[in-house]
């Protein structure tokens, strides 16, 4: 990632956040830039930049496997070559400091913000990255469509969202995040061709639905249409969930 520079003559610091999604099969490099293999299952991670230094943070198991002790790894933007997707957003100093604190605590094995016991289904690199975003007040947005005869969709921040279960499906969620600094010239997205993957890598890296919004977020969305007396019908992101105000939403699992 290119280090952001403030406008000529300006002393204002520019802070940015970049989120990355690497597909299974993404080439891996050592710190000297030499090829060392490829990613088996894909990865999600982030970096921050204060205009002078870039710091990266990701989470993975210490030993390869679905569960076990995990650790936070520094500067993985140097390891994953041409990840499938990255999005850079200008952020403010407070958000930068929150993301730095979150990542550095993990590097120190301090579990104040994140449990370092890895679980590929419930506590993975995806959970770690979205946890950092939430810690900085950066959230995905969910759009819910009420019943067909009501043409105004309901959009709200999904503050409890933990990400899609498979790496590549987090691209749509990262795209939904509103720019923290709208109109910034540092806001940008980059996509790369997907690497060659084996059939089983397709299965484990894409093709699932989103995790459901938290109950608090669903209730917030329901409350926003309650006074209109509408039935709120959720799309594929909440398969099997329906609520009509003022009844609380109930998830059918």
Keywords:
253 residues; 3-stranded antiparallel sheet; alpha+beta; disordered C terminus; 20% helix; 7-stranded antiparallel sheet; 5 helices
- Apparent shape: globular
Low-confidence stretches: 224-253
> Please, how many helices?
5
Radius of gyration: 19 Å
> How far is the N terminus from the C terminus?
41 Å
How many beta-strand runs? 14
Helix content: 10-25%
* Structural class estimated from helices and strands: alpha+beta
Order of strands across the widest beta sheet? 8-6-5-4-1-7-11
What percentage of the residues does DSSP assign to strands (E)? 25-35%
Q: How would you spell out the order of helices and strands?
A: EEEEEEEHEHEEHEHHEEE
Largest sheet: 7 strands, antiparallel
- Averaged pLDDT, please? 81
